[in-house]
Automatic annotation (TrEMBL):
BP GO terms, sorted: protein deubiquitination; regulation of apoptotic process
GO cellular component terms given for this protein: cytosol; nucleus
Pfam families attached to this UniProt entry: UCH
SUPFAM superfamilies: Cysteine proteinases (SSF54001)
GO molecular function: cysteine-type deubiquitinase activity
Protein name, per record: UBP42 hydrolase
Boundaries of every USP domain copy: 28-196
Species in which this protein is naturally found: Urocynchramus pylzowi
Alphabetical UniProt keywords: Hydrolase
Domain of life: Eukaryota
């Protein structure tokens, strides 16, 4: 209803494995050098997202990637492999930190940043990498990348005309949604903390 079918499927949804394909031991932790904790927390979340990690560990992207220079999917592939296959207890995500300016212009290695903003920019950079060479794809086809199928969704808008009662339905693809969540009772919990 109101949503165009994709002209081409960029990644078949039946190939997405939601569970770990191989048993994974906890990988290496990430070293915080300076103000990189916001980067580390998002990298850890992405690394331990099974459908993304399975895809990155398969090396399917890098085997077909023809992108010159920066490619967020190739960087994430190398990062996930390093974290999950390393015998070290801690590693530094040097490749990600080195290429911060390509992930988001507002990020600098020596300045603190916002984790949500880094996630937003990282997902968009991964989506661009999946679409590299496919920029002429229709909008519906662009939502069939592995990144969009794992992290994305659609906002459905339904508008009814007050005069003629005609209904208009539209969809907008997203990779991230900022939700305002109000927690009731939090003030009570904080008030009950014993004072030293």
């Amino acid at each position: 209803e109101g949503m165009a079918l994709a002209q081409r499927i960029l990644f078949p949804p039946e190939e997405i494995c939601m569970d770990w394909q191989q048993r994974q031991r906890p990988g290496a932790g990430l070293c915080n050098r300076g103000s990189t904790c916001y980067i580390n927390v998002i990298l850890q979340c992405l690394t331990y997202t099974p459908p993304l990690a399975n895809y990155l560990l398969s090396r399917d992207h890098s085997q077909l990637c023809h992108q010159q220079g920066f490619c967020m999917m190739c960087i994430m592939e190398a990062h996930v492999r390093k974290v999950l296959r390393s015998s070290a207890n801690v590693i530094w995500p040097r490749a990600v930190v080195k290429d911060l300016k390509f992930i988001g212009e507002e990020f600098e290695p020596d300045m603190a940043g916002d984790a949500y903003e880094f996630l937003r920019c990282a997902l968009e950079a991964m989506q661009r990498a999946c679409l590299s060479g496919s920029s002429d794809e229709d909008i519906s086809s662009q939502t069939t990348t592995i990144v969009h199928q794992i992290f994305g969704g659609f906002l459905k808008s339904r508008v009814t005309c007050l005069r003629c009662q005609a209904v208009s339905v539209s969809y907008k693809a997203f990779l991230h949604v900022l939700l305002d969540i109000k927690v009731r009772g939090l003030a009570v919990v904080l008030q009950n903390i014993p004072k030293p």
